[in-house]
Amino acid sequence: MRFLRSKRGLAVVTAIVLVLFLFRPGIHQLRDRIARSIASALDRRVAIDDVRFRVLPRPGFDLEGLVIYDEPAFGAEPMIRAQEVFAAIRLRSLLRGRLEIARLSATEPSVNVVRNDAGRWNLASLVERNAQIPAAPTQTSASGRRPAFPYLEATGARINFKIGPEKKSLALTDADVALWQESENSWGARMKAQPVRTDFNLTDTGRLLIDASWERSHNLRTTPMRVALAWENGQLGQISQLFSGRDRGFRGAVTFVAKLSGTPQALTVDSGVAIGGFRRFDIVDNQIVNLATHCVGQYSMTAKSVTGLICESPVNGGLLSLKGKVETGHLIENRSSEALRRRPDYDLTLTAERVPLASALALLHMAKQQLPADLTATGTVDGEFHSVRDGVGTEFSGSGIAKDTRLISNAGKDTITLGNVPLSLAGDASASNSPKTSRKAAATKDYVPADAHLRIGPVSLEVAGSQPVSAGGWLSASGYSFYLRGDLSLRNLFRLETTVGLSGARPAAEGDAKVDLNILGNWQGLAAPNVIGTAQLRSVRLETHGLNAPIVIPAATIILGQEAFSVQKISAQTVDTHWTGSLSAPRHCAPGCVYQFDLTADRLSADELARWLTLQPAKRPWYRILNTGDPEGPSPLLGLAAHGKLHVARLELKKMMVTSLVTDLDIAHGKVEMPDLRATVLQGSFQGKWMVDASASTLHYRGSGTLQNVSLGQLGTVMNDAWISGNADGRFDLTTSGGTVGDLIENAEGTLQFTMRDGSLSHVQMPAMHLPLPVHRFAGELRAKKGVWTLSEGQLESRDGLYQVTGTAERATGLNFVFMRSDQQAWNVTGSLAKPHLAPVNQEISRKDASSSTESKP
Asked: Can you give the pLDDT at residue 732?
């Protein structure tokens, strides 16, 4: 540079430029000469589309369409393709009659790094080629006679990776790459790039930095090298998606550094990885969890193994360490692709020395939802676990112990004591060759994985000083399972569920349960754990929103399955009703799911049913009697969707008794439907259907069906007046609404067809008859509309003749019927059923009424 700044240097440059302008060689000769020069250096075929000479700011050539082809063993696709390349010439070489390239700069080239079927990389031959190039170092002195190795650089490069003919989705973009010869026998390179995947839009994978140097060698495996590698500012979720194709759901800032020294067949690796702010993507917590480990080992490309491996992770005064070796191992058949693949063999020992459980719990806080924010743990873990896999099989061994283990939450009120928990590593030696276990089998209660898993327990577990229950389980790379067996109060069971982060409703209940439960889960997809097993309830008192009276359950068995749960052998009491039977529903019941049931009640009352179906204010204690801010809550039945069978031995409808009731029952959106109801009513039988709509503040009813051989005397008894006797059949189709009998009668609309036999109307006494009106047969149709009941075509057969009966009855005005006998005599019955008033009717008027009644028949 000093020479170029001197007057002599400027004169030389001016002369060279003048010579180049006056005696420029042919463009085709230059293009071919430059292509041959690059091809000779790389031992690759080179093609250039066009060459242009540039004077400023530095003399050189602009190369367009540079293509460097790969060896045939690595495919037909070029190794490097660059549309724009600048080749800066070494000016002093022109004075000696040579054309030397000092710097070769490519803009946004595309580079293919290929590994062929023989396991050889296309870059390996380029490294070995360096040993055959008699070039001087890049920064050679001015007096050098050999051509200097050019400084090669690329900006904005894209580096693709190929395994055989298949181009992988993993690539490097925005890569800045440089290559130079440092000395007579050594070369240097550096690169800065961003890892990406072509099939995903990843923007936060971090930055990869590589700084490498190597010495001259005719064989890549014996090439001395030093490599410093760093991966900075990568986001854990996007890095997991980069390598596996799926975001595993965890977050954190990833930093990876590694130093490699030696030769590929004996390479010393010193590396470290750290994850700052580790957490699950949907968990925000004030705690900061940082993970880090440091590893050293010897890697051999020839043996494809890592020996002398030592990884250490300090954990708040404790230490986790992994020691051993890993080898590529032997070839085995890949069942999915029917090809051979290498299964790595290893001999590894994991040691835990006084690792605090509090640190493990902090990590769990960042990986699992629903854990109490104030949950803490005491105790430490010590153990040594060994795993060996070779061509014969796999062996797992080792044991440890978690000492003085306790989980504490709710300001110390909820304490789970486990004491000393034994740990052991287990697994089947033939697990690697066994067929893959289905997900359905892995979700069963008694499933134990065949591959490596850590057994935990058994141990005696105490909740808030309760009687101990048996607990234990296992952890593996794919999932986990824990069991709980013994007697617990429901309060302590709910405490345990809350402490371990099991989601679900916690009903207001007291009582005891004998449990045999398993908590199952897998790590994939961050799925919530599932609980299966049984719980036998005893002496449980349950309070439910919307029902003022508690539900008392002397006994019941809850069966939790993988997809559904059921309650069997129910024995429960609600107010004065004793229930037996069973019910079931899907697990994790979403809105719209349907409960199935088969229930039997010894007795029910209309008042109790109405309380269940209507809005009920919650009862307040005496000291809140003046507080009017408590909202009324709807009945829990209104939010249910259920289908099943209901048996009621005795149903009390005010003073009327219905017995032996059996019906299908559908409950949905506040509507209760009984499509096939059978019962004994008034000593007769009923068959039909009823619907009760409780979605509004007033109950609405719709019913239809038939009555056979009902006792009208019993009807009179229910009404506290023996105004009628005999038996009857009937058919009805009615709608009504209201909360009292009067409301139901007044709001009724529809029809009632009836036939009365062998009875009497006790308060109706015709003239010249000393007895109440006897009825041999009385048939007709009552139509109800807006509270008015109309009889239009009644026929009554009595001892003294046949009567045509017409008229109306309503709650406000009472009776208004006309009885016309076959001899054309007629009487008007008014008043009430209990005190009817009988008066003769004008003959002419009665004939007209009878005639109009006949003409109005449909």
From this structure: 94
Cα–Cα distance, 526 to 368 (Å, whole number): 8
- Average pLDDT over all residues of the chain: 82
Tell me which amino acid residue 245 is: G
Query: Cα separations (Å) of 779 from 558, 715, 752, 854?
Result: 54, 17, 11, 15
The residue behind tokens 């000092």 is 102
- Model confidence band, residue 309 (pLDDT cutoffs 50, 70, 90): very high
| The one-letter amino acid at 815 | L
Q: Closest Cα partner for 636 from 607, 672, 610, 612?
A: 612
Confidence of residue 777 (pLDDT cuts 50, 70, 90): very high
Q: Residue 488's beta-bridge partner residues?
A: 513
- For residue 437, what are the CA distances in angstroms to 39, 68, 431, 521? 55, 50, 10, 15
User: With bands split at pLDDT 50, 70 and 90, how would you rate the model's confidence at 850?
Assistant: very low
CB–CB of 723/762 below 8 Å?
yes
Backbone angles phi, psi at 227, to 5 degrees: -130, 130
What would the 3-class secondary structure string for 679-738 be?
Answer: EEECCEEEEEEEEEECCCCCCEEEEEEEEEEEEHHHHHHHCCCCCEEEEEEEEEEEEEEC
Across 92-101, 284-293, 765-774, 798-807, the highest mean pLDDT is recorded for 798-807
**Mean pLDDT on 170-183:** 89
Q: Are 815 and 830 in contact (CB under 8 A)?
A: yes
H-run or E-run covering 851: helix 843-855
Reply yes or no on whether the pLDDT at 84 is more than 70. Answer: yes
What CA–CA distance (Å, rounded) separates 200 from 88? 38
The H-or-E segment that residue 539 falls in is strand 530-543
Cα–Cα distances in Å, from 432 out to 334, 345, 350? 12, 12, 20
**CB 818 within 8 Å of CB 827:** yes
Instruction: Show the tokens assigned to 360.
Output: 């493990």
Percentage of residues in the chain having pLDDT higher than 70: 82
Tokens describing residue 99: 């054309």
Whether pLDDT at 384 is above 90: yes
pLDDT given for residue 2 in this prediction: 55
What values do phi and psi take at 683, rounded to 5?
65, 5
Give the separation between CA 152 and CA 154, rounded to whole angstroms.
7
Residue 141's pLDDT is what?
56
Are 305 and 267 spatial neighbours (Cβ–Cβ below 8 Å)? no
pLDDT at 258 over 60: yes
Distance separating alpha carbons of residues 584 and 728, to the nearest angstrom: 41
Pairwise CA distance, residues 659 & 685, whole Å: 10
Dihedral of CA atoms 458, 463, 464, 468 in degrees, nearest 10, equals: -50
Residue 5 CB contacts under 8 Å (≥ 6 apart), including other chains? none
Assess whether pLDDT exceeds 60 at residue 786. Answer: yes
**Crossing angle of helices 122-130/27-42, nearest 10°?**
90
Is the pLDDT reported for residue 569 higher than 70? yes
